[in-house]
Structures are given as structure tokens and as C-alpha cells.
Amino acid sequence: MAITCLSAITFLNRGEDINLNLTIFIFSTAVLAYNFAKYATLPFAILRKQKAVLIISFFSAITAIALVFSLPIKLFWWSLFFSMLTLLYSFPARPNIKNFRNRFGVKAYLIAICWSGICVGLPLLYLDVDFDFRILSDLVEIILFVLIWLIPFDIRDMDTDDKDLGTIPMILGVRKTKIAGSILLSIIVISTLIKNGLAWNSIYLICLLSAFFLWKAQKKQSKYFSSFWVESIPIVWFLIECVNNLRG
């Protein structure tokens, strides 16, 4: 849902109507990619018991395949590229090397790049806009936001994740990671000021909300702190943009 909201925001920020086919396509591929990354490496005997996951994945795949034919061909090739990254995230290219997920320090950056490429890249390709500073800024902003939003998850999982993953909190420690996240938020604010001047932008509120959850994150956190509240930030952002657009 979060990645779908971010893709819709890309349309709204450009003053364009949200393309329903592309949005549903992104939602379906995101569900499929998440389930694939999480469950594909499980033994078949365990995987076959995950009936709900298999059914959801099946219908997500059917929906994505049906919709891809209604989209421009360049979106297909762009989606195929990120599908290959998702595949390599779970499975190594060769038996004697690690997959991307288990390579030291790679996981968060790969997820952030994929999110940015899908929720910003796909809508902008569909709109056929020329590449400029604003597009580069939009792509980088989402990469930075995703890195920040992943920090509470990585802090939560510090004691259970394999040390070879080399997540940012494992490398820097909790406090320095929060400081690094705050610096990234400052970069987003400065970039927005450069683009829009002193005019109010909803991104400032999202930065404040992200900073709040960033600094509240602890190793011991409630069940819903990261998996619900932090993941809800893009949804809140989308709702704010919808209200702004209704106001005109």
C-alpha cells in the first residue's frame, strides 16, 4: 500500500490525474515482489502451507500480467529491470556468491533504489516527462525517505538479523544511525527549499513525522510501531496531497 501511495503522489505532484491501470499494476507487482522476497526461499514443504500467500500472489501476478499490456512498452522494460533486481535480492546469480539481501550493507540501499524506481520512475515514464533536476530530486528524495523509514525496522531487528547483513544500525549504532537519518531529512528539506522556495509543502510535515518515529525507534518496540505506524507515513502523505488537490 505504501509504495502505491507514493506512486499516486508522483502523479498528484505533477498536477496529473492518477492513472488507475498503472497504480493497480504497481500495487500488484509490489505485493508479488514482497511475497517473493519473503517466502520464495522457504522449503517447498513449508511454502505449500502458506495458502493465503500463494493465492494472493497468484491473483497479483494475473492482475499485473493483464494490466502490463495496457501500458507503454517502455514501462514493461523498466518493470522487468526491477523484477530482475527483486529476483537477485532473493537468489544469487551464481551458486558460489551471495544474493543481494545477504551481501554486507546492500539490503537497505537496494530496497530504496527499487522503491524510487517504481513509485517515481514508472509514473514519470508514463507521463513522458523530460529528465531534469526536479526528476532527479524526486528520485533521490524517495531513496532517502525509504532509507530513513527502514531504520526503525533495522533497529528492531538488530539482535535477530544476521550480523553479515551490515545494516546501518549495526555499523553505526543506534544513536549515530538516528543522527545520520536526521541529516538525510535535512537534505530533503534543503532540496525542497531549492525547488519550491519558502512556499509551504507537505513534505515538511512528512519530514517531521519521519523524524518523530526515527527518534522514537528502539530495539524493543511494540508490534505495530514499525509494521503499522512507520509504514503508514506514505499513506498519510497521500491523504494530505489529496486534500491539497481538492482545495485546488
Please characterize this protein's 3D structure:
It is a single chain. The model has no long low-confidence stretch (mean pLDDT 84). It contains 12 helices and no strands. The longest helix is centred in the middle third of the chain and has 24 residues, at 133-156. It has helices at residues 2-13, 20-39, 44-47, 51-68, 73-90, 107-127, 133-156, 168-172, 174-196, 202-216, 225-230, 233-247. Helices cover 73% and strands 0% of the residues. The protein has one domain (2-247).
Features:
248 residues; mainly alpha; 12 helices; 0% strand; globular
List the helices and strands and how they pair.
Blueprint lengths: L1 H12 L6 H20 L4 H4 L3 H18 L4 H18 L16 H21 L5 H24 L11 H5 L1 H23 L5 H15 L8 H6 L2 H15 L1
Name the shape in a single word.
Answer: globular
Order of helices and strands: HHHHHHHHHHHH
How many DSSP E strands? 0
What share of residues is helical?
over 70%
Spans with pLDDT under 50 lasting ≥5 residues?
none
From the N-terminal CA to the C-terminal CA, the straight-line distance is: 25 Å
Q: What is the CA-based Rg, rounded?
A: 18 Å
| Major β-sheet annotation | none
Work out the helix count: 12
Structural class by helix and strand composition: mainly alpha
The pLDDT mean sits at 84
List the domain count as a whole number. 1
Bin the strand percentage: under 5%
